[in-house]
Amino acid sequence: MSSKIKRIYPMGFPWQTQDPFLFCVYHLDHYPKGNGEMGPDSSLQGRDLGNDFAGKDGWSMYHGKTIPGFPYHPHRGFETITIVNKGFCDHSDSLGAAGRFGQGDVQWMTAGKGVNHSEMFPLLHDDRDNPLELFQIWLNLPREKKFVEPHFKMLWHEEIPVIERKGYSVKVISGSFNDTKAPDPAPDSWAADPNNHVAIWNIHLEPGAEFRLPGAAQGVNRNLYYYEGEGLEIDGEPHEKGKAAELEPEAEILIRNGDQSSYLLLLQGRPIAEPVVKYGPFVMNTQAEIQQAMQEYRLTQFGGWPWRHPDPVHGKEEGRFALYPDGKKVVK
């Protein structure tokens, strides 16, 4: 194995990550055309509705029963970064905020001291299929930020830089690629301090392309996830789809593509290096803090749920938008 590659490992589900990341989930669903009510125009018989992760016919309902997605659920102590390359996600939360984003948009949400939110996937097209491609990355918060106020920020795709060169493109969601800087993340994020060298890049390689991954800072964790394509080489070593490579951070690495388009996700950051105790949607530093989170959620529901349904979706004709807790609405 190349000295620039620390290890190769299967990505699994969810994808294994390193500190400061907790994990990454990748969803690719080939949803059929819609039924007019933003659900699938297809029989749901044979699915474990409310817990459908089987991928029957190339798609899942997840925890949704009529519309795919994840009805309201709590989080505390970390951040979610949701990248929707294809399709749409309808967000609603316990702060009264809401939004519809997709087609390359990114939502950066700091759960902090506690928030409820739902993530539903409305099937808006009744005359054609509704493919969904989505990453959700869980980024940890350091101890000093575990109880900050919840916050979400939209990184609209028009604002996210995409570096296009001969044979490749790099979408810079976090960090900097050469001299190109991503939009600012949520303000309390570990990624908000440039000394933490957090980078999230979505990389596309055309058939036969060569791409030089620039070196990063000493001491960061750096992993490259190969989720679509065939025939890739990393520093001269064959690399299979569905596997990740932990890389030496300071090394510049040559990546050669085969005769198909390839897609990769890079996750990089300086480790927080604090104890991590996880229980479902709560990520804290001690077991006592987990017990506290569970008790507080039972008592307060982290502010309750202001929406009529546990799985709200927005109007079918609604475009991309964000409604913030202060009542400000941004329409794209």
TrEMBL record:
Domain Pirin N-terminal: 64-139
Annotated source species: Zeaxanthinibacter enoshimensis
Gene3D superfamilies: Jelly Rolls
Any matching Pfam family: Pirin_C
Domain (Pirin C-terminal) ranges: 201-303
Similarity comment text for this entry: Belongs to the pirin family.
Matches recorded under InterPro entries: Pirin (IPR012093), Pirin_C_dom (IPR008778), Pirin_N_dom (IPR003829), RmlC-like_jellyroll (IPR014710), RmlC_Cupin_sf (IPR011051)
PANTHER family the UniProt entry points to: PIRIN, PIRIN-RELATED
Stated name of the protein: Pirin
